[in-house]
Amino acid sequence: PRQARFPAELLLEASERLVADVGPAALTIEGLSRASGAPVGSIYHRFPSRDIILARLWLRTVRDFQTGFIEAIRKPNPAEAALAAAMHTPRWCRRHPERAQVLMLYRQRDLVAAGLPEHLNNEIAAVNQSMSEALADLAYRLFGRRTGGARRRCLVAVVDIPYAAVRRYLADGRPVPDDLDAMIATAVRAVLSDEQHANPSRR
Predict the structure, then answer these.
(1) 54, 24 contact by CB (below 8 A)
(2) Half-sphere exposure of 154 (CA within 13 A, CB side)
(3) Fewest CB atoms less than 10 Å from the CB: which of 69, 78, 139, 172?
(4) 7 in the Ramachandran plot: left (φ > 0), alpha (ψ -120 to 50) or beta?
(5) Alpha carbon of 153 to those of 13, 85, 143, 147: distances in Å?
(6) Which residues, other chains included, contact 177 with Cβ-Cβ below 8 Å and sequence gap of 6+?
(7) Contact status, residue 165 vs residue 87, Cβ threshold 8 Å
(8) What is the pLDDT along the chain (203 residues), one digit of tens a residue?
(9) What is the DSSP string of the chain?
(10) Sign of the C-alpha dihedral computed for residues 100, 101, 103 and 104 taken in this order
């Protein structure tokens, strides 16, 4: 069969550039048509609505990020896994600056509307569940518990610290500096070291 002239991936790449440059509100079917060169009819053939495009863009971006994050968090040594997972954020942001702006500057609710088809909601739930399970598993390996203070400590260390560190640069459209990695690593070790060998029953 003849290859599609305007495949879904091409339209998602154009959507990514629009959202990264101007924000989700800038993504309209007409704007995407101008940015991609695709006729409006071709866009609707791939995506029934603007909301579907944004949801698919969010899923595509999160899955790309999570692939390396979950691979890192599954390293055999839990302390090394936590550090590798935290380091994944700045390194991924340097490799994919536009994609990073979509993921780090906007929340899920900024891109994912209510009332989506059930199959899309199921995909979104599965992506979120994968992240939740990975963090719970790391908390157990580090502290002996999957919930409560143990999970919060992991969340701060491997998600909140690197997110806060890179967001300033992404918001300004600047590259994430290389020397940020060492500062993130220092903060991650500090958050984890206080409790790593404490009695799990205290958390």
Answers:
(1) yes
(2) 29
(3) 172
(4) beta
(5) 35, 14, 10, 10
(6) 169
(7) no
(8) 555 688 999 999 999 999 999 999 889 999 999 999 999 999 999 999 999 999 999 999 999 999 999 999 999 999 999 999 999 999 999 999 999 999 999 999 999 999 999 999 999 999 999 999 999 999 999 999 999 999 999 999 999 999 999 999 999 999 999 999 999 999 999 999 964 444 444 44
(9) -PPPSS-HHHHHHHHHHHHHHH-GGG--HHHHHHHH---HHHHHHH-SSHHHHHHHHHHHHHHHHHHHHHHHHT-SSHHHHHHHHHHHHHHHHHH-HHHHHHHHHS-HHHH--SS--HHHHHHHHHHHHHHHHHHHHHHHHHHS-SSHHHHHHHHIIIIIHHHHHHHHHHHTTPPPPTTHHHHHHHHHHHHHHTTTTS-GGG-
(10) positive
| Contact present, 14 and 102 (Cβ < 8 Å) | no
Amino acid at 201: S
**pTM of the prediction?**
0.90
Residue 192 to residue 159: CA distance in whole angstroms: 13
Can you read off the two tokens belonging to residue 47? 């995506």
